[in-house]
Design brief:
Number of helices of chain B: 15
Largest interface: A-B, 67 and 88 residues
Strand content of chain B: 15-25%
Structural class of chain B: alpha/beta
Oligomer: heterodimer
Largest sheet of chain B: 5 strands, parallel
Shape of chain A: globular
Strand order of the largest sheet of chain A: 4-3-2-1-5-6-7
Structural class of chain A: alpha/beta
Strand order of the largest sheet of chain B: 5-4-3-6-7
Helix content of chain A: 25-40%
Helix content of chain B: 25-40%
Distance between the termini of chain A: 41 Å
Distance between the termini of chain B: 41 Å
Radius of gyration of chain B: 21 Å
Amino acid sequence: MRAFTRLTAVAAPIDLPNVDTDRIIPARFLRKPRSDEYARFLFHDVRFDARGAERPDFVLNRPAYRDAQILVTAENFGCGSSREMAVWALDAYGIRCVIAPSLGDIFRQNCVKNGLLPVILPAGEAAGLRRQLHECPGATIAVDLESRTVTGPDGRAYRFEIDPFARQMLLAGQDEIALTLGYERELRAFEERLEQELPWVVPGVGGRQPATS
Amino acid sequence: MLEKIWARHVVAEGPGGHVLLFVDRHLVHEGGTHALARLARAGRRVRRPDLTFATADHYVLTTPGAPAGDAETGGMLETLARETAAQGIAYFGVGDSRRGIVHVMAPEQGLTLPGTIVVCGDSHTATHGAFGCLAFGIGSTEVEHVLATQALWQRRPGAMRVTVDGRLGPGVTAKDLILAVIARIGAGGGTGHVIEYAGSAIRALTMEERMTVCNMSIEAGARAGMIAPDETTFAYLEGRPFAPRGERWQQALASWRALPTDPGAVFDREVALEAAEIAPTVTWGTSPEDALPITARVPDPARIGDPARRQAAERALAYMGLEPGLPLTAVTVDRVFIGSCTNSRLDDLRAAARVVRGRRAVVPAWVVPGSGLVKQAAEAEGLDRIFIEAGFEWREAGCSMCVGMNGEVARPGERVASTSNRNFEGRQGPGARTHLMSPAMAAAAAVTGRLTDVRTLG
């Protein structure tokens, strides 16, 4: 996984609350293997019209925001479906960080697994950043995961909290499976205890062997 | 209850309050093929194929007769069949009557058990919490992680309790209850939390109704919902194919009876609703929180004080093609969908059939059973005849028009009365307009051609 340490980049504001992952990537694209093509799928049905032409009013279609690598959104961005392809599409487009008052739980987790930094700021601070981005289209925001600060276009710095595990994984760009495989001894011990103490959990141990069709 | 389940699944303590949690059941559908392919490429094996169960639901066509899909969707099914076979995972595929929506199939098979941790690469995994387990949706990378390690790194979520006391009125169902809860706490109201549903109205629900409630926890932002197991739970589970038997059943029962939350336990957040105040409920907008009693009118955005909320409501009404102040019962529909992991079980189909019997659908209407076994059971009691005689289409099991991944979508601008769980823009197809409601209400809409208070149909 790609590491995240710090980033200074153009940020785009998204003011609508409850932007769901169906809107971030419509279901019909989920069957596609991960590729650069995902950049085109991002916000597809609100970004392009039925003929595939750009909708000029959509924020990422406006010249100043086109190269955005940061989104500053309203509440509950990324709610709904667990589809990680929403993050794949953001990543393919070049978005490296999403700043919001709140994010869908699964979406936030998916961000971390793909090297995208989720930043939670109080609603007032996120709204203030969006206002500045509207006032100065193309303005940049600086995000520093080491010091856990976001610096707005006006130079004001905001400190954010992030759980230490996510921070460590992002800073190191750590592959989580490799990390967990280092816990093999603990996993084995747990599995032995499970079979002893809660034997009914494992079908075929406590229950019946799976039926064949 | 959350704390008890959590504590017994900790494999190891990690950094920053994260723990490595053991997963008792990993459910897989076609969405898991991305992760299975990455696992195979890395040369890794599934650590616990005996705790992993797969079925096909999202991409299978539900057209009567179950024809094969196109190259892309057919390819997903082939990959899933091949990879599960290579990894020794039980797979309920096309042609197996146990195949169905993963959140219908697993409980039906007795795979979902109280006190366990259940995960699936699907946000509606929350459904399984109806059994008093911790069940939540995960992303594709996490699916790969569970396949490889049978565990997940997690930080304990907050605990929220939603208490619903009293009795639901006639014509009011579990679907109306959960829509009312979401309208109250909002689409992000449960973010970062697990919701435990409690109270006399919850206790009175059947297992199928409890699944409907827990299913939509994610629509309130909560990754999981749960209900304490009781005699209703145990009666449902006993004798199911993968449920424990004999001495193991007795051991399991003893363990399950100790699960319910202790009196006096403190929750991070509490919400209470009166069941008697809940009416048949429908959504009018593009977020599940946009839900109102069927007796209400389309809201007026001009009366919303918060500018962001006002803008969202204006956009929702424009998308939905609705005027403020219109009585909801005046909204005409073009199509009806009865199905999805929220409402496709036998009781749901019975409730819809009771409304439909002796009437006729005036718009195209589909019934998509949740599994092959639900379909068989419904046919055994003649529900299929009731639907077919009323002009409904009786289809094969699958997710179908809830998510439209298999191409089963509504046309742009079409207004759908749907028993599914999401009324997002484009969810049922680009430009499609979704109104969420119970199976009885969807059946009522099918026979009248408009949103209808099922209580007035007699």
